[in-house]
Design brief:
This protein has six helices and no strands. It is mostly helical and 168 residues long.
Length: 168
């Protein structure tokens, strides 16, 4: 992914839009991580309701999706490295250490940000799988939309847990 090519073929409007979207999502992610680092592991592992994911599951899921699409964009699918957390209410002791999970989340966001900043126009139009709609532009839009959706869930879940409104 060439930074020069991205600027040349994407144009200043694309660059500005991507910068704004990335900056906004990076601020949201950073705030969520700061809040999560202040909470005990047991709280992060809790699901506030029967059909809801825990805050930790949500943030790790976002990072795993970034890792998956980074693998598609680079041509190297990232298999066998999954830190996927179970959807059920597991005991926190069964999970990888919280610090390791949050470090993974931070690393994936940094790698995603770097990749997006260097995407070239031709990479946005290229297909990255057997489906003709799976283009670089679709991947960007999907990851941004996916992040927005789950960050809303994460903020709401944290609020429920912290206010004691959850069925814990």
């Amino acid at each position: 992914m060439s930074s020069e090519a991205g600027r040349a073929s994407g144009g200043p409007l694309k660059d500005a839009i991507l910068r704004i979207m990335l900056a906004s999502q990076n601020v949201q992610r950073r705030r969520a991580l700061e809040q999560m680092r202040r909470l005990p592991a047991r709280t992060l592992a809790r699901q506030p309701g029967t059909y809801m994911h825990s805050p930790l599951w949500l943030i790790v899921h976002l990072a795993e999706v970034e890792r998956h699409y980074l693998g598609l964009l680079s041509g190297e699918l990232c298999r066998g490295e999954s830190l996927t957390l179970p959807a059920a209410k597991p005991e926190p002791a069964a999970w990888p250490p919280i610090r390791e999970l949050l470090r993974f989340v931070t690393e994936m966001r940094q790698r995603w940000t770097e990749a997006v900043q260097t995407l070239a126009g031709e990479e946005l139009a290229s297909t990255y799988g057997p489906q003709p709609w799976l283009t670089g532009a679709w991947i960007l839009a999907h990851v941004f939309e996916h992040e927005s959706y789950h960050m809303g869930q994460l903020r709401w879940t944290l609020r429920l847990i912290q206010t004691g409104s959850a069925e814990l």
